[in-house]
Every structure is written in structure tokens, then in C-alpha cells.
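Dear H.,

Thanks for agreeing to be a second pair of eyes. The structure we're designing against is below in C-alpha cell form, covering all 94 positions.
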């Protein structure tokens, strides 16, 4: 999935609150969305301000065949993936 499709899909998930969070160490620092320190609307704003040059992909470290999307913009790091129908956030932090 390319940047434009991923952007559209993750924004829709955030807007409808249809997302979850991957369990991980240091979640209180690495996933500020999960901790409530940043709102879904603020993450949407960050993602909307990003461009294709801010986006990259890599394979998930544990789930074979799952592509992880990474958006780095305005000093924020947003990392997520899709396992239909779910959108799962790994990291949202500065």
C-alpha cells in the first residue's frame, strides 16, 4: 500500500476512533496517543501535514507479511500498520 492510500486509511481510522495499540515496552514514552497525551485529532493534523517524502515502510518485526508505515513530520514519529479491518499504532511520539 502506498502513502496516499495509507494516509487516507489511517486518517479514517483515527476520525472514527477505530484503532488499537500494539503492546510494547516504554509505551508511556513511545505511544503518546495511547497515553492520551495527544488526541486523535492532533495526530490527524500531523498526518495531513505530511507528504510522501515523510513516509516509509518496513516489514513488521514479528508479523510476517505485515507492512509497517512510518511517518516522520514536524519532529513527530508515527508508526502504524493495518491488519484488516484493524489499524494498529506502534508509536506516536516526538
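And this is the sequence the design step returned. I haven't edited it by hand at all.
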Amino acid at each position: 500500500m502506498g502513502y496516499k492510500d495509507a494516509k487516507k486509511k489511517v486518517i479514517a481510522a483515527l476520525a472514527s476512533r477505530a484503532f488499537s495499540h500494539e503492546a510494547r515496552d516504554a509505551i508511556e514514552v513511545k505511544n503518546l496517543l495511547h497515553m492520551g497525551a495527544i488526541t486523535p485529532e492532533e495526530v490527524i493534523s500531523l498526518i495531513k501535514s505530511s507528504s510522501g517524502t515523510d513516509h516509509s515502510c518496513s516489514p513488521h518485526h514479528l508479523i510476517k507479511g505485515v507492512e509497517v508505515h512510518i511517518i516522520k513530520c514536524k519532529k513527530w514519529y508515527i508508526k502504524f500498520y493495518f491488519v484488516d479491518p484493524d489499524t494498529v499504532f506502534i508509536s506516536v511520539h516526538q
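Two observations from my side: The radius of gyration is 12 Å. The longest strand covers residues 76-83.

Warmly,
E.
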